């Protein structure tokens, strides 16, 4: 299994990592991505728009629809990734999305395109370990990290299956629910992260419902990384092509909070 | 499980799917978010326990008999047969069930399972409203709170059913995301479920979704085919030559077909909604006009573009207006065991009127697709041959749509 150097470097810094999400094709995506990097994001998550984003709340649903209304294609997403890689050779880039657009032309095709574009990892919401063969082997062959999700419902019996074959980092979904809604209590997150760390050497990043620097700081005290999505995506929805300045500002505040948490 | 007769030259039984991971060949499976996965595994364990529990079956059978009104009649449509000319046409009368469609069979099974699992809140999605009404009905019967997600567009098209659900005590939530139809209602149902996994049971209305739903819904609906098989044998001491059923997600068709799958001499025809025709984009024929992919927890044929974005289905029948299909149908298509065809909106309206006038039965628009296909096939068959079609729903809910399509003001 190939470990992504960029991802492991991002989680080897002396401080916790800030992981920032925006949707591909929403607003001026290239400028949005640059703003996240300039603001201090350590890892970039680029959302692949899908017509049926079952795990997402209203903010990211709306971003998906905006991107699709502008006829964003899979080819456009890989072009964004490739150009990002040229501008930012050292910043890890992850694609996050749903199974169908990823496997439409076959998992090998998708993994090959990821490799060509310099994508470091892939989070697929609706491929659990039980269906790993639909995408996992193709990604591993190309050295792309399949990043799995663990949730509050993932019990001790299932956890080894989730961790087995996961790479890059483990994304802990802090609440049983959809993106952008309520946040879990820090105490429960600390307990969950502790259990995960007892079972894996992979870094643990925590997301779902993290919106403010205060929340991000509290999570960064107990986790290796903090994922922020909906709050950033809402800025793209609000400011459209003018979003980069607002994204830079929020990312900067989040980065300060996360990087100085401990 | 071995076949009962006639399939000696088939390599395997067609009745032993899915495998233990919920796969029907390449299709089916459990493509869900991790949050739901433990629940899906729980559900499967509970379903296996229920299957092995005679008390569960006894309660299911008792409710089907005394509450739903089963067995539904097997009826020889004499005047339709004469009008068409050719094979004898028989109907399984599942439109006579309580709530007016086959949907209730599955809802009874699932709510018994929900109660067995200690769940205290029921959610469901609905398109035409038939599954919503059936779910609201069983929730009222067992005193459980019920939330129905329904596309805002369907709420508008199917207002009588919306009122029925409300009368039965359900909360109907109009879904405005996406195209505001059935698939969007299902997305919203899954979002609710993922946020309320601790107390909520999702009653999926068709033989689709993550394993074990496709298998479970098929099993509950198989009462249709089991009864029909026995009724055929006791009435005329032979099996039909051809089974016909309409397909949206495909639960009524699987319910009829599954008990006959290993009867090699029984041919089967599934009828998809052809909308304005398969040469354009406005249809809901996932098998004939779609391609394999992953949506709503299972791998199956989907209406989608080259990038895997899901496209909206169209049909005059809101109950067939879904861009996917149950995974077992995908497998039955690829194996060639079942033949699939499509019938347009216009042809379905002809089938609707034909049955009204020849048999005094107002069918739902969904089985009207099957009726048109039955009439076409019957003409090509001998008069000693038998077609058995599932009349899966009655048409009261559709009279406004039909009037509009025929240019009649009521």
From TrEMBL, chain A:
InterPro entries in the record = Aldolase_TIM, RibuloseP-bd_barrel, Trp_synthase_alpha_AS, Trp_synthase_suA
Record-level GO cellular component terms: cytosol
Pathway it works in: Amino-acid biosynthesis; L-tryptophan biosynthesis; L-tryptophan from chorismate: step 5/5
Q: What is its EC number?
A: 4.2.1.20
Where in the sequence is the active site?
45, 56
Q: Would you say which domain of life the source belongs to?
A: Bacteria
Molecular functions per Gene Ontology: tryptophan synthase activity
Sorted alphabetically, which PANTHER family does this protein's record hold? TRYPTOPHAN SYNTHASE ALPHA CHAIN, CHLOROPLASTIC, TRYPTOPHAN SYNTHASE, ALPHA CHAIN
According to the record's subunit comment, the protein's assembly and interactions are: Tetramer of two alpha and two beta chains.
| Record's protein name | Tryptophan synthase alpha chain
């Amino acid at each position: 299994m190939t470990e992504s150097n960029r991802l492991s470097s991002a989680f080897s810094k002396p401080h916790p990592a800030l992981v920032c999400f925006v949707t591909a094709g929403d607003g001026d995506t290239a400028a949005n991505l640059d703003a996240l990097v300039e603001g201090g994001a350590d890892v970039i998550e680029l959302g692949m728009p899908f017509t049926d984003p079952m795990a997402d709340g209203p903010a990211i649903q709306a971003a998906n629809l905006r991107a699709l209304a502008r006829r964003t294609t899979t080819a456009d997403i890989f072009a964004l990734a490739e150009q990002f890689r040229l501008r930012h050779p050292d910043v890890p880039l992850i694609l996050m999305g749903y199974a169908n657009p990823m496997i439409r032309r076959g998992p090998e095709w998708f993994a090959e395109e990821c490799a060509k574009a310099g994508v470091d990892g892939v989070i697929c919401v609706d491929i659990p370990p039980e269906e790993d063969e639909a995408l996992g082997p193709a990604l591993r062959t190309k050295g792309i990290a399949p990043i799995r999700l663990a949730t509050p419902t993932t019990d001790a019996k299932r956890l080894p299956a989730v961790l087995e074959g996961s790479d890059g980092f483990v994304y802990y979904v802090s609440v049983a629910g959809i993106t952008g809604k309520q946040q879990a209590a820090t105490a429960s997150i600390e307990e969950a992260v502790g259990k995960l760390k007892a079972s894996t050497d992979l870094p643990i990043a925590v997301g779902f419902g993290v919106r403010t620097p205060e929340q991000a700081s509290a999570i960064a005290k107990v986790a290796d990384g903090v994922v922020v999505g909906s709050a950033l995506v809402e800025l793209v929805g609000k400011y459209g092509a003018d979003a980069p300045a607002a994204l830079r500002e929020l990312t900067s505040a989040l980065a300060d909070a996360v990087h100085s948490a401990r | 499980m071995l076949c009962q007769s006639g399939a000696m030259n088939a390599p395997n039984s067609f009745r032993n799917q899915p495998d233990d991971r919920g796969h029907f060949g390449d299709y089916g499976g459990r493509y869900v978010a991790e949050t739901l996965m433990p629940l899906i595994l729980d559900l499967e364990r509970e379903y296996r326990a229920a299957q092995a529990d005679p008390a569960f079956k006894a309660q299911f059978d008792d409710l089907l008999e005394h509450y739903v009104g089963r067995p539904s009649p097997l009826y020889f449509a004499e005047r339709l047969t004469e009008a068409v000319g050719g094979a004898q046409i028989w109907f399984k009368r599942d439109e006579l069930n309580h709530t007016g469609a086959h949907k209730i069979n599955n809802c009874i099974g699932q709510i018994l399972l929900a109660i067995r699992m200690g769940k205290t809140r029921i959610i469901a999605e609905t398109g035409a409203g038939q599954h919503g009404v059936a779910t609201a009905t069983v929730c009222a019967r067992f005193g459980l709170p019920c939330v129905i997600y329904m596309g805002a567009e369907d709420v508008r098209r199917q207002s009588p059913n919306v009122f029925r659900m409300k009368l039965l005590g359900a909360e109907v939530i109009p879904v405005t995301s996406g195209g505001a139809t059935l698939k969007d209602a299902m997305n919203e149902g899954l979002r609710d479920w993922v946020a309320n996994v601790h107390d909520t049971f999702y009653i999926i209305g068709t033989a689709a979704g993550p394993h074990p739903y496709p298998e479970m819904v098929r099993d509950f609906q198989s009462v249709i085919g089991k009864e029909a098989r026995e009724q055929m044998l006791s009435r005329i001491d032979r099996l039909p030559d051809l089974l016909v059923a309409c397909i949206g997600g495909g639960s009524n068709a699987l319910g009829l077909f599954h008990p006959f799958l290993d009867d090699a001499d029984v041919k089967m025809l599934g009828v998809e909604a052809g909308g304005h025709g398969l040469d354009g984009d406005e249809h809901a024929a996932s098998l004939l006009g779609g391609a394999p992919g992953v949506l709503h927890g299972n791998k199956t044929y989907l209406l989608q573009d080259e990038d895997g974005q899901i496209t909206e289905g169209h049909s005059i029948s809101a109950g067939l207006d879904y861009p996917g299909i149950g995974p077992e149908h995908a497998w039955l298509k690829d194996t060639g065991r079942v033949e699939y065809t499509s019938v347009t909106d216009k042809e379905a309206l002809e089938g609707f009127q034909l049955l009204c006038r020849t048999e005094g039965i107002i069918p739902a628009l969904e089985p009207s697709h099957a009726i048109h296909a039955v009439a076409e096939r019957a003409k090509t068959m001998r008069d000693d041959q038998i077609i058995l079609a599932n009349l899966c729903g009655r048409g009261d809910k559709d009279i406004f749509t039909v009037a509009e399509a025929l240019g009649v003001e009521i």
